[in-house]
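During the no-cost extension, the postdoctoral fellow (Dr. R.K.) reprocessed legacy sequence entries with the updated structure-token encoder. One reprocessed record is reproduced below for audit purposes.
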Amino acid sequence: MEAKKFGDYELVKELASGSFGKTYLAKSPDGRKVALKIMHPHLANDPKARIRFKREMQILEKLNHPQIAKIIESGEVDGIPFIALEFVEGRSLREILNEKGKFDEKDALKLFKELAFIVSYLHEQGVVHRDLKPENILIHKGKPRLIDFGLAKSIDLPSITIEGAVLGTLHYIPPEVLKGSEYSQKGDVYALGVILYELLSGRRPFEADSVSELIDKIVESEPHRPEGISDETWQLVSALIDKNPSKRPELYEILTSVEVKKVRRSHVIAAVLALTLAIASAVIVYTTRTRHPSPTESRVVLRDSTSGAATHSESTKINPVEAADVPKELHSLVRIKLSHPSDVFVDEQLLSRGTKIIEFLHDTGTVRIKVRNPDYGVLRRTLRLSAGDTARLDIDFDREFGTLIVKVKPWGYVWFDDKFLGTSPIEKPIHGRGRHTVKVEHPIFGTTIDTVDLQPGDTLVWRYEFQR
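Re-encoded structure tokens follow.
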């Protein structure tokens, strides 16, 4: 019997079928196995279906993670869109749960943490999966791989709304979405909590005989505690599936808490693993430092001998009182120039948003300036004003802050002084001279911690390479 073809691909067997299309195990023209997702022919002329299919392709193209199947190509055959993905051998977590029933607590937490790492990467890239469930998780060589981004949403792509529709698989949809709220990153956190509950108990937290009853339980009821799990793990599960999304933890908090708990329970195992990693892995660490000229003085107080009035050629005057109307002995003029648009606060009161140049009148004495920039953070300055003076404050963020660049092979999750920065590569402005701690974690290769010295104006490139 002649093999069935789709364009240049030979279809081997059907792997899955969904509302938008079917996925096949196929062979590419060069003989490589691929997972070929083909839109249902009857949807090929549906504009919304085509946009959703294209959006899945765009999201997959921007992701580069070893535990997410990579896109090979996309296109159309006879007007029917398709996406060819790296084929991942393995079984779905649903199959394993159906066969195994449940995981022991240690294995469940280990798998959960690796899933949290993957979802943390998605969120760092601005992607919300919106359909996390065991059916969309493949276990390959003991490691999870995340598949099916058909419902995923990216903050840099236009959203698609279906009037009155709730997208996803009901058991894993958070209660706020069922009540009409937008699906957010905290919805993915809830779904992870449901999956962890299922790993620990072999069942989902809410079951019912009808859709309406199931929705009522998800929105109103509290789940029963699975038997035989520790108080710490139950607290984690309860926090993940809290009805209030604002009370659910952030993923970096989850990762840190699970890590600490493992260390506390298995001091000996952790030590052995650390020793094994140290012996089995050749780790290369080196830094490159670029020194910029020392920061210039950021505050200058000068006597303005020409006039007490403000000039407005390139600045914004905020104080409504004209300088000429106020005796010079009762006020000073403050001029602030910033290298990047920022919010400016005076004595903790917001004065202006998104400003680069600003000037205002202030009483003589002490004035506290706070400058807040979305990329650099917060800087504070205190000026002492004398009657009739003009105080000039120039802030060059590039010279006030150092720049930390972290590059890891193959990749890693990066913490700086216990603050989670995201997934490598990282390039972040850092304020605060002196020694700092950099931690990099990888779910397979383990964790490394290093100390770096960063000064204002520095660019510190920190490279870390894991070798098998």
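Residues 105-124 form the longest helix (20 residues). The chain is about 25% helix and 35% strand. The remaining legacy entries will be reprocessed before the final report is submitted.
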